[in-house]
């Protein structure tokens, strides 16, 4: 990708939910009629929520800027890219059109894959990677809207998580254009820092190997002297998950509330597939949570939706499809 890509996006009619339907229908109309500007403006007023000429001009101008429309004399025509999208409905075509012409989309997905979930966190990552832009929240919000409309991300409360399609896109799109490791800190890494990072990575890999060896599809139980059922969880799985979390809750992203007497960050190991229902004990199904998030997932009014969000989070962290995590149910 060239460095002359634009940084800002504009919306299209229909909000997040109806945007792709309106866009595809307009492209079908343009492809069949090659309308004049007057005719296209009239069609948009009749078939969408379009009102002012200035909004229509802005929105259509953006669709032109990402290579889906072209203008010849006073008539509009669709590009080869637009024809492919109309014929196939493949959302990858739109994702590629956006990333080929606009900065930031791939950076947002990389930030999400690293656990940055809220508007503010995502905005901070973009600002770190693109220091030459002010990037107010409105700009970031329009990026997020397009990713949500295409089905790459989902919004849960005030957090965003990649969908299964988004995770697939992320795996396919990793390249030199993605967010640098140093971007979040705003500076260049030192040699000592690189060595420490390498050691941490080796330690995490070793712990994961041990966790995989201990992983079980079902957990054996026993009843203690008080008649309470206890589950034989793996210490190695828990050790890996805590090392992976690196002192931060993998649910909300906040630091652990305190350090315990052993010098470890105080976090809980939560099984997203309940052990009492026969769930597994494995790196892909255990997530490190602060006490507040752990209490929320067990007692909160939105516990079920939040637990599903945690499944998506684990899917991104462990690079395992959501369906594969849920397949043991």
Molecular structure report:
This protein is mainly α. The protein has 3 domains: 15-93, Winged helix-like DNA-binding domain superfamily/Winged helix DNA-binding domain (Arc Repressor Mutant, subunit A); 103-173, Winged helix-like DNA-binding domain superfamily/Winged helix DNA-binding domain (Arc Repressor Mutant, subunit A, Orthogonal Bundle); 202-326, no CATH class. The chain contains 14 helices and 8 strands. Strand 5 and strand 6 (229-231) form a beta hairpin. Residues 175-195 have low confidence and may be disordered.
Mean pLDDT: 84
Spatial strand order of the main sheet: 1-2
Instruction: Tell me the structural class.
Output: mainly alpha
The coarse overall form would be: elongated
| Radius of gyration over C-alpha positions, nearest whole angstrom | 24 Å
Q: Estimate percent helicity.
A: 40-55%
The ordered string of helix (H) and strand (E) elements is: HHHEEHHHHHEEHHEEHEEHHH
Question: What distance lies between the first and last C-alpha atoms, to the nearest angstrom?
Answer: 42 Å
Total count of strands: 8
What low-confidence regions span 5 or more consecutive residues with pLDDT below 50?
Answer: 175-195
Which sheet architecture does the biggest sheet show? Answer: 2 strands, antiparallel
Strand percentage lies at: 5-15%
